[in-house]
Amino acid sequence: MSETRPFSYGTVISPMEFMVKLPSILRRLPGIAYNAIKGLRMLSGGTNVTWGKVLEDIAGRFPDNPAVKSPDGMLTYRELNGKANQYAHFLLSKHVGQGDVVAVCIESRPELLTLYCACAKIGAICAMVNTNQRGESLVHSFNINKGKVIVIGEECLDFFNEAKADIDLDGSLLYAMEDTGTSLGAGMEEISALAAAMPDHNPATTAAVPTKSPAAYVYTSGTTGLPKAAVIINKRIISALFWWGKVVNTICPDDTVYVPLPFFHTNALTVGWPAALYNGAAVALRRRFSASQFLSDVRQFHVTHFVYVGEVCRYIMAQPEKPDDHQNPLREIMGNGLRPDIWEPFKKRFGIEHIHEFYGAAEGVGVFTNLFDFDYTVGTSLTPYAIVRYDTENDVPERNEKGRLRRVNRGEAGLLIMEISEKTPFAGYSDKKKTEEKIIRDAFRKGDLWFNTGDMLRDMGFRHAQFVDRLGDTFRWKGENVATLEVEKALNAFPDISASAVYGVTMPAGDGKAGMASILPLEGRTIDLKALTAHLKASLPSYAVPLFIRLVDDFEMTATHKIKKTQFRKEGYDPAQARENLYVLLPGSDVYVPVDEALHREIVAGRYNF
Predict the structure, then answer these.
(1) E strand or H helix at 436
(2) What is the DSSP letter of 64?
(3) Neighbouring residues of 456: CB distance < 8 A, sequence distance ≥ 6
(4) Is-contact 370 343, C-beta < 8 A?
């Protein structure tokens, strides 16, 4: 890009920065290598190492340690293992075994974790249905991986029953799981009472579950609208035990890892919970994330490690600041999506020693992790990857005259691809066609296979990278790529803005897609449009300054606290559809002006040369 951007937040790591960190890197490397080798040996040792087997081992070593902490109740490792055994024996009595699907739709409470562990012990695949889905998406999630057993939490029965007629239940055993005990479905047996009558000893099946077998289906939204079921295999989960439990974090048996995110999300299943389990530490959970309750939860549960995602940290930062915010047991946090503009303030305000930002996908073949405390980076990957040039106009990676992909230079952004090999297998989706769509072939040599992450990352040098944007969010305007996250950083830095969502909209005879931003003002604040215009022009290159802005009262969020943009894109800058405060930055203007129907007609007619 030809213009400078004040909001780049360290687009490259300088040699001086690297030299300053080098002594600590050298100190950490032996421990990282030791634990990584230990994990590899465990995985290739010829025995079946699985989640269920590790749970049994940890329950034997730390029976009285807290395993689960929650406003809904507490479980020790003895209790968690015993209850999981009861559910496992119940499922076995219903002829559920290796490779069978158990579909669960339960909010994040201890019973969900218990049922997940039960499936792991018998080799069943736990399909973790997103409890925020409704209608067609919910039906699709149940139907693409038909459950031999389906368990619906009492708290989910209302919306499940609304969709029930379209769900293929033929041959499935349907159970409810009690919550408050006030609204169980008619004709549905309650599973926890049935399981409580079962023996609580470890089932013989656990030792026979292969390490390479699927453990869970996690439903990702992807870009098509309907969910895809990413396959999580035991090998990946066991790798996570070592990676997050020993290599990345320092976790002791009396620590607590707080995961206030839904457990149908991979940050919970393959980052936070494994780190706690492997060390005999507790995992703390909450049904729904609450920014206002964050610090009280941290203090109540004695939380030492916190798993974040998306905008969670921004919501926490938006809470009224108190002088004792730093007085809490938190030491380390791990997650993805911590915005660079609040990276240092968040760390300082809550007294956090280490931020382990990472990059990975539910179905991905590798992970980037900030192991060495460089700021504003997702860190480095120990598995082969490449950041390659991408043609956003034609939506394909660029290839040279020999048909091979082209790597970006240091400081440049491009598409991240990760090598698929025997050491880094791609389990894919339950849908074979969707699996094939994510594979890039003959990238650098004939016959090689690479996983298309669908994400733009920046090469920061020293094998480190910085997340830039999702490919679906990046758009092209005036011959330049506009990364929505970069524009959102600039918008969110404006004093009166609480949050923003940036996207591209089609323009008549326009060169690409123009930038548009939906903006949520801080409560009780009025946006000074002239000051905002000046701020954006000073903060961003001219082509990245949004042409349109829309002031909104609220945002609709995904389960992982990402703003939904699809409807905003669809409504665009048409006042008949948006029905809110719409503004446009006309050519040569220094302030956004209102868009009424007359001005909208002129814009659509191409009167203005944007």
Answers:
(1) helix 432-437
(2) T
(3) 390, 413, 414, 415, 416, 467, 468, 469, 470, 471, 474, 481, 483
(4) no
Mean pLDDT of 140-152: 94
**Residue 451 in contact with residue 443, Cβ under 8 Å?**
no
Q: CA neighbours within 13 Å on the CB side: how many for 256?
A: 23
- Domain span(s) for CATH 2.30.38.10 in the chain: 6-28+374-470
Amino acid, res. 427:
A
Please state, rounded to an integer, the average pLDDT across all residues of the chain. Answer: 88
d(CA 569, CA 582): 14
CB 540 within 8 A of CB 490: yes
- CA-based torsion, 324, 328, 331, 337: positive or negative: negative
CA distance 517 to 415: 24
Query: Rounded CA gap, 83 and 76, in Å?
Result: 11
556 phi and psi angles, rounded to 5 deg? -85, 130
For residue 546 the two structure tokens come to: 């949004």
Residues of each domain in the chain carrying CATH 3.40.50.980 = 51-220
For 399-427, the pLDDT digits (tens) are 999 999 999 999 998 999 999 988 888 87
Question: Is pLDDT at 467 greater than 90 in this prediction?
Answer: no
- CATH number for domain 51-220, candidates 3.40.1550.10, 3.40.50.980, 3.40.430.10, 3.40.50.2300: 3.40.50.980
The whole-angstrom separation of Cα 410 and Cα 535 is 28
pLDDT on residue 302? 97
pLDDT band at 541 (very low <50, low <70, confident <90, very high): confident
pLDDT range class, residue 3, cuts 50, 70, 90: very low
Find, among 395, 430, 539, the residue nearest to 141 by Cα: 430
What pLDDT, in 10s, does the model give residues 581-602?
999 999 989 999 999 999 999 9
pTM above 0.85, yes or no: no
Are 351 and 331 spatial neighbours (Cβ–Cβ below 8 Å)? no
User: What is the mean pLDDT of the segment spanning 331-339?
Assistant: 89
Q: What are phi and psi of 234, to 5 degrees?
A: -60, -35
Domain 480-604: give its CATH superfamily.
ANL, C-terminal domain (3.30.300.30)
Contact indicator for 411, 377 with CB cutoff of 8 Å: no
Nearest to 457 by CA among 1, 11, 15: 11
Report H helices in 44-123: 51-61, 77-93, 110-122
- Helices vs strands, H then E, count in the chain: 19, 29
Instruction: Count Cα neighbours of 210 within 13 Å in the Cβ-side half-sphere.
Output: 6
